[in-house]
Amino acid sequence: MKRQARQISQIKLQVELDIAAKRYLAIYAGAAKSLRVIAAGGLGEQFPGYELHKYLTHDGIKDLFDLYFDCTQKPQNLKRVYQAVSCAL
Fold first, then answer.
1. Domain ranges of the chain
2. Which of 16-20, 30-34, 42-46, 49-53 has the lowest mean pLDDT?
3. Whether 29 contacts 61, CB under 8 Å
4. How far is it, in rounded angstroms, from Cα 49 to Cα 36?
5. What pLDDT score does 80 carry?
6. Bridge partners for 38 per DSSP
């Protein structure tokens, strides 16, 4: 009996983003259509910058995300894993 090769349907890349609000608004306004991110292991990918809009606060975007890509490296999903909390004393 032959074994079939297991196909990978999704690739997950975990990245920590720290983007100032002013910088992200420039991206959102059209200065760049996509963002290139590099994970801790050195793997890098691009995804559409507009995907982060819903996570933008007045402090910017300071969160940990899981980025999911299909086997052709096309972005499929973005999921926030951790939201940084800022405290003012």
1. 18-83
2. 30-34
3. no
4. 9
5. 93
6. 44
pLDDT digits (tens, 9 = 90+) for 27-46: 777 777 888 888 878 888 88
On the CB side of 87, CA atoms within 13 Å amount to: 1
d(CA 34, CA 28): 9
Quick one: tokens of 10?
């999704």
- Over the chain, what HEC string results? CCCCCCCCCCEEEEEEEEECHHHHHHHHHHHCCEEEEECCCCCEEEEEHHHHHHHCECCEEEEEEEEEECCCCCEEEEEEEEECCCCCC
> For residues 2, 3, 5 and 7, what is the CA-based torsion angle, rounded to 10 degrees?
120
CA proximity to 25, closest of 6, 44, 53:
53
